[in-house]
TrEMBL record:
It catalyses: N(6)-[(R)-lipoyl]-L-lysyl-[glycine-cleavage complex H protein] + glycine + H(+) = N(6)-[(R)-S(8)-aminomethyldihydrolipoyl]-L-lysyl-[glycine-cleavage complex H protein] + CO2. Keywords: Oxidoreductase, Pyridoxal phosphate. This is glycine dehydrogenase (aminomethyl-transferring). Residues 147-280 form the Aminotransferase class V domain. The gene is gcvPB. Its EC number is 1.4.4.2. The keyword Mitochondrion does not apply. Residues 333-432 form the Glycine dehydrogenase C-terminal domain. The glycine cleavage system catalyzes the degradation of glycine. The P protein binds the alpha-amino group of glycine through its pyridoxal phosphate cofactor; CO(2) is released and the remaining methylamine moiety is then transferred to the lipoamide cofactor of the H protein. Signal peptide: none annotated. GO terms for molecular function: glycine dehydrogenase (decarboxylating) activity.
Amino acid sequence: MNNKLYGNLIFELSKEGRRGYSLPQHQCEKYKIPQTLCREKDAELPECDELTVVRHYTNHSANNFGVNNGFYPLGSCTMKYNPCIDEEMAAQPAFRDLHPLQPATTVAGAKEVCHDLEQLLCKLTGMDAFTLKPYAGAHGELTGLMVMRGYHESRHDDKRTKVLIPDSAHGTNPASAAVCGLEVLEVKSLVDGTIDVEDLKAIIKEQREEIAGMMMTNPNTLGLFEKSIPEIAKLVHDCGGLMYYDGANLNPMLGACRPGDMGFDVMHVNVHKTFSTPHGGGGPGAGPVGVKAGLEAFFPAVSPYEGNFAVLLRTYAYILSLGKEHIKEVGPLATLNANYIKERLKDLYLLPIEGLCKHEFVFDGLADKSTGVTTMDVAKRLLDYGYHAPTIYFPLLFHESLMIEPTENESKETIDSFIEVMRKIAQEAKEQPEELKAAPHRTPIGRVDDVQAAKHPVVTYQQMLHDNN
């Protein structure tokens, strides 16, 4: 690749007078644009011929990394393969070309899809009713918490304004609670990574009359199944609260158990994680919310439409294509893949919590800390070998967290290749640590100053700055 042509910004390829189009003379009457709408000077747009533009963006697109072109073991996010059949269904003109303001009589097919999907989600989760309106997981969390709050207000139990959240929870949990006007009561974890039931009991004893409910993710953020859920659910229910299930980690539960059977009253499902539509780049997503019987009366009006319909279509196609026979294999296979990687690498990477994990697990960096090689270095080096890095420095329970989630789709050959590279990086850390600390070496851009980029991002092209350089 010629970096002179394709490694720069499109502005830097601009040559005055170049054109990439030829339009015929317009046939409209002359119209003078009001002065208040006119620019004081011409917009600083790049001037390039069509071939340069096409090559520029085509070559840049090759730098995108996704599930379709490589292994993407991003912990907590379930970046699973998006089957082509799901894309084909979502692209059907009868669905694709719908407008949300069409008369209801013209969208009977779309309404039937939504109704069927709600019923399928009920069967898969053990809930009794679903709303598809939330646009994302965090939006679903907020919706579910509004259901919880509406339930208590309907009983004139206005003092219940506090929600229990484990210290290992996703950051969206306390954020959603705050937006909903609820106060967070943090519940500690045990050394084995699961909820400290004794700490929970002490909090409930002290705040009994003010607890609205408890939010839990299961398996939790460490990929561990919370075995004390029946006891936890009884404690919360006995004090008058509701149990909320964060569906971010639902993937390993498919075919194994259902949140609605475990004592949860409200939940959201990140269908863009568990049921197709990988969500890299910030979207799109959808976060349907399910409730046990009686709570559907408190569904809030969070949207006038049925969420992101194209995402819901992919979800529907995914569930139907697997069917009730094969969807049962999702959870067990995701669990098998994660445990296989964990066991093959735990001699070289520090495993802070032993035992069976579910769909994901967390290393606390390299086992040998004497090299000075950090989790960041390992992640950057993985890019040189063609792998997207796992989630790093989350959860916050460990200093050098390296969170790996392979999903059920990956073959043993792919997983073995990843394991081989991870072992090679551990060896490199001992023999040539400086090379890791300077990685990546084979990407279009080397290691950037993350702090500088976060605090002082340059988000616009500055022509004068370029000219001066």
